[in-house]
Here is the input.
Amino acid sequence: MKRREALMALVGGVVSPLFTRTGLFGQEPMLEVTCDYGGTINNQPLRGKGRGNIDASGRRPHDVTVAYEALPKGFHPYAVGACFITMGVAGATRHGKALNLWDLSRGNYSFERTMTWSDFPDSRIGIKARVTTRERNFHLRADYEGRYDGPTDLSTVQLWEGIMTQAGDNVNEIGRAVIERSNGETFEVKWSSVYRGFYRRMNVPRQHASMTADILTFVKNEMRMKWTSHVRDRIPDTPLWRVRIPLRLEPPPRIVQPPRAH
Here is the structure.
């Protein structure tokens, strides 16, 4: 039986264009990314749309540009490590037995994340997101809810890293990013996440994920990002071993407005 006929027999006679471009034929797709961001931060709306590309093979850098239609006062996208943390390792370069998010999910999964800042203990933001892929379109919908009262004079994100741990059918993650202010001072954002809906498990109990921004700009409510990312089956010596964020995701605090004077 020919290779294509054998594949059709395996999947009930239907071969999707996306499936034939992935693992079984040894060719990973270049994905067209679309993003929708929503929610409220500091009781103000957050809305944005993005477009870009992710190379699922990890051989080339990835890029996304996000235009914010509404951005809360007192908030800066870099404060959460820039929005690429929600999809940054989808096409990460693999090292050893580690797998990227595309390998684990084929572009269909959901996750929840809680973000905190030790320097700003009253700040907490929750993210609920879903990724769906049809043909070559990798679509992310992410909703933010919570409070941020840290600085907004942010110039870049120096590094991003996370440790992913297999937990039954889910994958738990703890992570951190180092944010740089315009005066050169830095602070950290830390998070815990739960990924759901992966179609396969990781090859190793834990793996390390990292990203670096080749280009990161934010001008007139438009953020442009170009980044490279890696997943490794060996965990380096990292401050993440000292992170103690509970994996039980807690809802962000509600901000109660004072009553209006009559």
Remarks:
- DSSP finds three helices and 13 strands in the chain.
- The CA atoms of residues 75 and 114 lie 16 Å apart.
- The helical segments are 3-10, 17-20, 101-105.
- Residues 1-26, 245-256 have pLDDT under 50 and may be disordered.
